[in-house]
């Protein structure tokens, strides 16, 4: 059961309104936000249709702050005997990994979504500890776009790696 629905991000709403009234200088930002939000909606659809609503609680689009003052965002958080953090990406095109760095196929380095996920997972664990909640946490990086390809992903790295874990929700 979804107990917190996803809402359109405020920045996206503002840029949408401005785009109708003037020529935006931040067209790339608007497109990136639209694409990201579309990917999150696609994820919501897949999760809603793929899980029995009686067996889980899902919260989307959370903005949280732990006792260290670190504010962080979680795309989707599922509770089913454990907390499962999902970082949803709507990347398209071809990417590759080299020395733990992420690149487009044209060799342009991008920020690692794994580092983003690990920071979110760490901040969430700290929040749970602050609240005295002792429930296991897993984190997954989800690519929803069928036009996404990742080359050179490690096959035999740490089983804790979000690139290598398989989600089991029994």
UniProtKB/TrEMBL annotation:
Q: Which organism is it from?
A: Robertmurraya beringensis
Domain NERD: residue ranges: 35-147
Name of the molecule in the record: Nuclease-related domain-containing protein
Q: Which PROSITE patterns match?
A: NERD
Listed InterPro entries? NERD
